[in-house]
Amino acid sequence: MKQNQTLMALFPLFLILTIAAEVEGTKLFVFGDSYVDTGNNLNASSYKLPYGMTYPGTPSGRYANGRVLTDYIASYLKIETPTAYTLKNSSNLHNGINFAYGGTGLFKTLFDGPNLTVQIDSFEQLIKQNVYSKSDVESSIFLVNDGGNDYVAFAVKDRNLFGIEKFMKSLVEELSVNIKRIHSLGAEKIFVSLLPPAGCVPKISVVSLYHKCLDPLNKVSRNHNTMLLQVVEDLNKELGKPVVRTLDIYNSFQSAIETMQKNHKENSTLMNPLEPCCAPLKAGFACGNVDEKGNKRYTLCEKPELSFFWDNLHPSQNGWNSVFTQLELSLSQIIGGGGGGGGGGNLTIMELYYFSILILVRC
């Protein structure tokens, strides 16, 4: 009896050590766009000041003043942030690799760069070169964050607003194809980000009074997410196990923004979370721009550490930290659990009209 009690007392410790052993040594492979890019787009504004001013203290290719989602997930896994694919060498591959490239998507976007398919091509090539073994891939975490730039490109190029739902279906189907391909290469733990609330980014919210989220555009994100959640559910049923998980970026953004908005109302000296910390002086300028004399074409907020958005499209380090705090529980899915979601519904004509506002975006 006493022996059984001792074993029961030691069980929680055994469970903790088992979890720690599973996470320890895990590699992280990242695919997608600027929300998770840590330095692949060498020609981007993210390699100019004031990007990186908080961390690492100089521009590092991150689209923020400091850490982004990739950094926080790597920290959670107790590993160093995986190196950007562009910057890889034989000595810095032990934590995985980040293939994400700012401005890209699943299809052709407004920017040249490797889309998700090409990023997976690069990963597959490393496997063929025996840079990573079968066991490396099976024990690793895969993060996919993509799709936002595709909607921007659709709004700017196509402008057929009544075709948005058909486009949405094709986009999610393409994402499903790429997820299946990652799994076919041996991945057993794939995290796919839901889209954030599109109507809340400063580039969009600035058209409303007092920087408020435009819900009709948020509904585009919600509909996309609902469709993606169904695809993930069907895919896991097909595979017979929960290989693919979703990270609820949408509700994490919403929750963090609502909390900061409440604080702003109670204390007007705090920033409105929908205002960018690094703001262009006028239309056509962007964070990081300078003129031929070196004069800044942007302004900086006094306390970047209190902002939610760094520039017109990307969260600040504080913003990502707030979002990750909401996501941390979801990451327990590494060792079991299920996914989450958000509601959708067909878009009305008025909502399609609001979607046209995305034409203003040049990310």
TrEMBL record:
Signal peptide range in chain numbering: 1-25
Gene Ontology terms: biological process: lipid catabolic process
Q: Which GO terms describe its molecular function?
A: hydrolase activity, acting on ester bonds
Q: Does the keyword Lipid metabolism apply?
A: yes
Q: Which Pfam families match?
A: Lipase_GDSL
Record key words, sorted = Hydrolase, Lipid degradation, Lipid metabolism, Signal
Family affiliation: Belongs to the 'GDSL' lipolytic enzyme family.
Q: Provide the protein name.
A: Putative carboxylesterase
Natural source organism: Lupinus albus
The organism's taxonomic lineage, starting at the top: Eukaryota, Viridiplantae, Streptophyta, Embryophyta, Tracheophyta
